[in-house]
Amino acid sequence: MKVLQLVTGANDSFYRHQIRTLEENGIQCTTLTPPGSHTHENTDGSRSVVDYLRYFPRVLRESSASYDLLHANYGLTAPFALAQSQLPVVLSLWGSDLFGPYGWLSKLCARWCDAVIVMSTAMVAELDQDCYVVPHGVDIKQFRPIPQPDSQAAVGWDPTHLHVLFPYSPSHTVKNYPRAKRVVDAAQDCLNRPITLHTVFDEPHARIPLYMNAADVLLLTSQWEGSPNSVKEALACNLPVVAVDVGDIRDRVTGVSPSVVCETDTELVNGLVDVLATPRKSNGRHAARAVSRSQMGDRLQQVYKTVLSTSRSSSPDVYQTPPSR
User: Fold this and answer.
1) Are 237 and 208 in contact (CB under 8 A)?
2) Which string of DSSP letters, residue by residue, matches 67-89?
3) DSSP β-bridge partners for residue 219
4) What pTM was estimated for this model as a whole?
5) Where residue 319 falls among pLDDT bands split at 50, 70, 90?
6) Of 40, 46, 97, 230, which sits with the fewest C-beta atoms within 10 Å of its C-beta?
């Protein structure tokens, strides 16, 4: 099977893992990105209308080659995927492309795709159409428990402090760093041991397991999410999670202890204090196995096979909601 992949940021670690996993399953992938830059804080980076105008003929030209289908990753690539008529289209929505300012475009394009993949049941409800739920997978070989003293020494953290990991840039508005800072400051008033809040970003992905294992808890305060990889990576490292109820987090941490899903600042503070008062590892690794890279690859391959067995001329309305595997 040969698949043309459209994506806004080919260097994002979760996308690279997706492609590597598909290729391990025998699927040949070619990636096409728009001209211009891409950042984590702004998925569209500094791309201009001219950049996207240049992207359009490239997609048309490449789609005429010998591919079996086209996979549009992220909503902004969907119009270009649908502009060609050679290949059936699979669309993956990641979260910010559905809940953010371009959500209207993602919803419009999704109606015309042969299959739509989302990260969580919350996204299914927002999209209000039949789709597959296939979260991004986590590499449970890379993300694994490591002794905390070794990890703290490797990243240079003070072992006499409690460490809260916020694995995003403070400038990434959707991640809501001010709320995280407010919650940690309030928790500090309840504990005698000093707490350090660490914002970890722009680090090589290979080093992130060290930070996960050096920390005492992962704190997530995002305004919205699809299926945040940081939570799944934390689970694979047995790192406790204190998070707001967004995306699929509640599903991911069900049965994981200690971990808390919260609605209010008070609940976040109480959850953080509970975890930090007696620092301990969680039992999250068993939950991470359900969203491993290999599971994701198998599910995506099955979506591809289903699309290829269905005529492109069929209406999207004929699809029955597949199981959220």
Assistant:
1) no
2) -SEEEEESGGGHHHHHH-SSS-E
3) 242
4) 0.84
5) very low
6) 46
Distances (CA, A) of 296 to 61, 83, 208: 29, 28, 21
Tokens matching residue 268? 């976040």
> At which residue do the structure tokens 């109606």 appear?
111
% of the chain surpassing 90 pLDDT = 85
To 10 degrees, what angle do helices 177-188 and 265-277 make?
Answer: 50
Pair 95, 226: CB distance under 8 Å: yes
Q: Which residues contact 52 (CB under 8 A, 6 or more apart)?
A: 34, 80
pLDDT in tens, 201-226: 999 999 999 999 999 999 999 999 98
* Secondary structure class of 300 (helix, strand, coil): helix
| Closest of 231, 255, 11 to residue 137, by C-alpha | 231
Angle of helix 13-24 relative to helix 293-308, nearest 10 degrees, comes to 70
Fill in the amino acid letter for 82.
L
